[in-house]
Each structure stands twice: as C-alpha cells, then as structure tokens.
Amino acid sequence: MIEGDWVPTVKPLFMVRICINKRLNTDRLPSCGGRGSRGLADALERLILAERIPASITRGPCMNNCLIGPNLKIQAGEFFNLQGDISDLAIEKIMIAIRAEAERRKATPSDGTRRN
Ligand code: FES
Questions:
Q1: Phi and psi at residue 104, to the nearest 5°
Q2: CA 10, CA 48: separation in Å to the nearest integer?
Q3: Ligand 1 atom nearest residue 32's Cα
Q4: Is the separation of the CB atoms in 14 and 57 below 8 Å?
Q5: Domains in the chain, start-ordered, CATH in brackets?
Q6: Distance from the CA of 76 to the center of ligand 1, in angstroms?
Q7: Alpha helices, DSSP H only, in 34-109?
Q8: pLDDT, tens only, 73-110
C-alpha cells in the first residue's frame, strides 16, 4: 500500500496547450511568458489534478497571437486570448471550459457515437 499524498493519475482525454514563450524583448513586443503564462500553466495544472479532470497541460512555443496573449487552446475546443488578464476570474472561465470539454468527451466515445 502506498502511503502519503499519492494520488493515482487520470489518463488524459485531451490536452490544453499554453504558450509559455518568453521573449528577450529586444523587439519590445509582449510575450505570453512575459505576461505570466508559466504561472498560469502551473495554476491550471494544479486545479486539473485537484479535480481529477482527465486533461493534461502542454507548455508550448509561440502561437503567433503575441499581442493578445497569454494564449491557450483546449484541444478541439475553445481558444483563449487573455490580453494580459490572468486573474482568478479568467482562470475560472478557463476551468469552466475545461470541465465542459471533459464532460463532452466522456459522453462521446472515441468512435464518435454518443452515449445516452
Ligand atoms: S508569445 Fe505567446 S503567442 Fe507569441
């Protein structure tokens, strides 16, 4: 028996991709990493694990929307351009979309048919 805070992992059904690109800022353009997307990725990952949502966070490179970031995309789902807003309210809006995507995927088996 495993003791302590060990929590069995949940197999992810989808991923949430977050741009964590951070510029050296020689061109004075904003970047998602410069606007806090790395902390945002950590916060979302903690919430997903705490709620045992079958999703994974993927930290990735620039998504070519730097001026309106931090940017994140739910796989086959919603795209968020946070425009510098990484407030608790913004995080909750993202979590609502992630929960909805998890429910949608649980209701739809991989063969595309819908469960009743
Ligand atoms: S730095 Fe994130 S979209 Fe370019």
A1: -60, -45
A2: 10
A3: 2
A4: no
A5: 14-106 (3.40.30.10)
A6: 19
A7: 37-51, 88-107
A8: 999 999 999 999 999 999 999 999 999 999 999 998 66
Give 111's pLDDT tier (boundaries 50, 70, 90): low
How far is the C-alpha of 100 from the C-alpha of 41, rounded, in Å? 18
- Mutational test site, ligand 1, from 20, 21, 79, max ligand atoms within 8 Å of CB: 21
- Please identify, by atom number, the ligand 1 atom nearest to the C-alpha of residue 19: 2
Q: What is the mean pLDDT of residues 31-36?
A: 96
Q: What is the pLDDT of residue 27?
A: 78
- pTM score of the predicted model: 0.85
Q: From CA 49, how far away is CA 53, in angstroms rounded?
A: 7
Query: Distance between CA atoms of 74 and 101, rounded to whole angstroms?
Result: 8
